[in-house]
Write a structure and sequence with these properties.
- It is a single chain.
- By secondary structure, this protein is an alpha+beta fold.
- The chain is 49% helix and 15% strand.
- The chain contains 8 helices and 6 strands; from the N terminus they run ααβββααββααααβ.
- It has a 4-stranded mixed beta sheet with strand order 1-3-2-4. A two-stranded antiparallel ribbon has the order 5-6.
- A hairpin with a 2-residue loop joins strand 2 (42-47) and strand 3 (50-56).
- The longest helix has 17 residues, at 61-77.
- The radius of gyration is 15 Å and the shape is globular.
């Protein structure tokens, strides 16, 4: 499951040479729209065979980017869930108790995090919060990527905590939110 998300994300970066989820969505025929809500971060739906991502405009740009990457993962990996059914609503975005949500997180982590940049930060001895801040990401998304790297056999220390099960459960999106 996780390998499929990582491989697809990595393949898109290789083919298109970009990590920007908004540009990738456009290239892949996915329409991105902005909505205003108090709790909902994003959602995706397929309407008349057209994939849509809806992003809460009241969030910071980094959280909008992470949300778009996550929802793009759902569009590409879980189309069968979306077709002919109601939209996937993300109130507690990136809830890792659900396999589909975790898979969308892995997709987002591989899309948004460049291995060379991450390795440079780790080799400099940056802590997780500083590294996440440098990458303009929530620390939990970075932890998901590091966990996957460790599963792939890379020499990643196991001194960091597991990601929070609902690390983007609120609109607050500081890098150090654990």
């Amino acid at each position: 499951m996780d390998n499929r998300a990582a491989e697809l994300s990595s393949e898109l970066v290789r083919i298109h040479g970009i990590r920007d989820p908004f540009r990738l969505a456009s290239l892949l025929g996915v329409t991105v729209k902005y909505i205003s809500t108090k709790r909902q971060k994003g959602l995706c739906a397929v309407i008349d065979d057209i994939p849509f991502i809806f992003i809460n405009r009241n969030m910071s740009e980094p959280l909008q980017r992470m949300t778009c990457a996550h929802e793009l993962g759902h569009i590409l990996l879980h189309r069968e869930i979306l077709s002919g059914q109601k939209p996937l609503l993300d109130y507690e975005l990136f809830d890792i108790r659900s396999s589909a949500e975790y898979e969308a997180n892995v997709f987002a982590a591989y899309l948004l995090i460049d291995d060379a940049e991450l390795n440079e930060l780790l080799n400099r001895g940056e802590d997780l919060v500083t590294a996440a801040s440098s990458l303009d990401l929530n620390v939990n998304l970075l932890m998901i990527r590091l966990l996957q790297m460790r599963r792939e056999g890379q020499d990643i220390p196991d001194t960091f905590p597991a990601p929070s099960r609902s690390f983007l459960g609120t609109i607050e999106d500081k890098a150090d939110s654990v």
